[in-house]
Design goal:
Its EC number is 6.3.5.4. It comes from Flavobacterium ranwuense. The protein has about 600 residues and is of the alpha+beta class. Helices cover about 40% and strands about 15% of the residues. The protein is built from 26 helices and 17 strands.
């Protein structure tokens, strides 16, 4: 887990080092730099495998020079294949396996890799750069490209300069999503390499190409019994956890009150020869606190459990760090407790397993179930539903009117799914969701509506929200997080299972629950999930009120391109008077204002 940098722009060595030092938290163990043929390579190392300096980067083999961020979990298997082919190895790191594998197979190496990674390899003979990003987009990859000049980095901050301009399209997307999705970034001429893609740069001709090596495939449901599916998935999970336990530094696991982290921790405890360390963040507000359930889990699996209770001041103290390490506007408020959890964890271990990814593949998010609610009204002709959407159903269902309008007023389930992942009530003056076609999900790889929604979750939200949150929060404390549920084999396997194996009679993640019952009694884990969230709505009305009112003044709001200022101000008034919860809208604008002040860039 590190930070990478490579460019053909003729910066001085001191300039490149300054850029790397601005994100030094990603790799505090070693800062490496070298230049070849006018190409500068830089690397920040967080040493996890082969702690010896021989594995520092940039790493060279023949004419190849690599900077690599992440872990290749199956590197031992690939290494043995290369040994048979006559390759010798000087280190015990996955970096050496990666560069020698590329020297042998070129881009075909990618199909062999099981890991989380973002890397760039400069070929000093051909004068080319080969780059790739892992299938699920766990590791970040930003790049600047203009007129044959390029600059690649793990984070955006080192790519910001006096000529940088904010992308107004990206600001509009952020107003809906609360993040900026790939391939976009918040800056013009800076992009994100999409997951499952590789990029080739020809420095002789000044050209670049971006190609796909992996994506979700059209769903083909397997003819498999439930018991067979459960057994096969259990075996996959056992292996996914096992290959993520390889570490030369102390390792532990995050443990919440949810079943995904409980299952990962339970499997790790079963495999490990010694009790593992588990870590939990709890909240003073009992409506959000899962620490008591997590403690029960830890007692059953026999882990060494470390619990930290978080109050408003503890979480809000993380706000400056959030702005510092996230680089782009990022409005997932659970980033605050995530930062705190990683800071506590770093006192004990450097690698932590997590349960991230289970909800996406196994229909765990309740917002996906809005699709099921839509089925109950979809038989009603659209023009009648449009009229019904104006009724005050929200008083009956105790939810915001926009959600009910979104369900009743969607033309079809495709439109509803788009609204789930953008906005039921956009803050844009003019909403444009054509950018979603970049995700190719409108080809719809699945016919079943819940799987369609789950695929959106995997391709859009997982990469651009969940993975970003985990990467930046962990890197802020120099922690490496490994997520077995993000093993591409599990993602692919889950999509071949009938929906009823994953969601049945209102029960989410059915098959995961049944596997977990082999480790933990169902009476313990079958409790309402509270989610890894904070009481943001109350904090906005109390602890954060003055700061938010100061930040979101008319002067700032009028600088936000495409923002419907009057609509937002109505939402803020309704929230502050406790009529409805518009905390997400307010938090989005608050974080944007903080980001704008930090980077001193004009929004338009």
């Amino acid at each position: 887990m590190c930070g990478i940098y490579i460019t053909n722009i003729p910066f001085q060595k001191e300039e490149v080092i300054d850029k790397l030092q601005s994100i030094e938290f990603r790799g505090p163990d070693y800062l490496g730099y070298e230049t070849k043929n006018g190409v500068s390579l830089g690397h920040l190392r967080l040493a996890i495998l082969d702690l010896d300096q021989r594995s520092n980067q940039p790493y060279t083999f023949k004419q190849f020079h690599i900077v690599f961020n992440g872990e290749i979990y199956n590197f031992d298997t690939i290494k043995q294949e290369l040994v048979v082919l006559g390759y010798d190895f000087e280190t015990t790191s996955d970096t050496e396996v990666l560069i020698k594998g590329y020297s042998k197979w070129g881009k075909d190496l990618l199909s062999k890799l099981n890991g989380m990674f973002a890397f760039a390899i400069y070929d000093s003979v051909k004068n080319t750069v080969f780059c790739a990003r892992d299938r699920m987009g766990v590791k970040p990859f930003f790049y600047y490209w203009k007129d044959g000049e390029f600059e690649i980095c793990s984070q955006l901050r080192p790519l910001v300069n006096a000529q940088s301009k904010v992308s107004q399209q990206s600001v509009s997307i952020y107003l809906d999503c609360g993040y900026v999705p790939s391939p976009y970034s918040i800056l013009e001429n800076v992009f994100k390499l999409p997951p499952g893609n590789f990029m080739e740069i020809d420095l002789v001709n000044g050209t670049k190409t971006v190609s796909e090596y992996w994506n979700l495939k059209p769903v083909v449901i397997r003819d498999i019994s439930y018991e067979e599916a459960k057994k096969e998935l259990h075996e996959l999970l056992l292996d996914a956890v096992k290959i993520r336990l390889h570490s030369d530094v102390p390792l532990g696991a995050f443990l919440s009150g949810g079943i995904d982290s409980a299952l990962v921790s339970a499997i790790a405890s079963k495999i490990s020869k010694t009790p593992i360390n588990t870590f939990t963040i709890g909240f003073e507000d009992p409506k959000f606190d899962e620490s008591k359930v997590a403690k029960q889990f830890s007692e059953i699996i026999g882990s060494n459990h470390i619990e930290t209770i978080c109050g408003p001041n503890d979480a809000l103290a993380m706000l400056p760090k959030l702005i510092m390490v996230y680089d782009e506007p990022f409005a997932d408020s659970s980033a605050l407790p995530s930062l705190l959890l990683n800071a506590v964890t770093k006192e004990h271990v450097t690698v932590a397993l997590s349960g991230d990814g289970g909800d996406e593949s196994f229909i765990g998010y309740y917002h996906l179930l809005l699709v099921e609610k839509f089925k109950k009204v979809s038989f009603i002709p659209y023009f009648i539903r449009k009229i019904l959407s104006e009724f005050k159903w929200y008083k009956v269902f105790k939810t915001r009117p926009e959600t009910i309008k979104g369900i009743f007023g969607a033309r079809d389930e495709d439109e509803l799914i788009v609204r789930i992942f953008t906005s039921f009530d956009s803050l844009q003056k003019k909403q444009d969701v054509r950018w979603l076609h970049d995700y190719k999900i409108f080809k719809y790889l699945a016919k079943e509506s819940l799987q369609k929604a789950a695929d959106f979750n995997i391709k859009l939200w997982l990469e651009n929200d969940s993975n970003v949150k985990v990467d930046r929060a962990s890197m802020a404390s120099a922690i490496e997080v490994r997520s077995p549920f993000l093993d591409y084999r599990i993602v692919e396997f889950a999509r071949t299972l009938p929906i009823k194996y994953r969601f049945r009679n209102g029960v989410t993640k059915k098959i995961i629950r049944d596997i977990l019952s082999d480790y933990i009694p169902e009476s313990i884990f079958n409790q309402p999930k509270k989610g890894f969230s904070i009481p943001l709505g109350d904090w906005i009305r109390k602890e954060l009120k003055n700061e938010i009112l100061f930040a979101l003044n008319d002067e700032f709001l009028n600088t936000v391109p495409n923002l419907d200022v009057q609509k937002f101000k109505r939402q803020m008034e309704l929230h502050m008077t406790e009529k409805y919860d518009y905390s997400f809208s307010i938090w989005k604008l608050f974080v944007l204002s903080k980001w704008q002040r930090e980077f001193k860039l004009q929004l338009r």
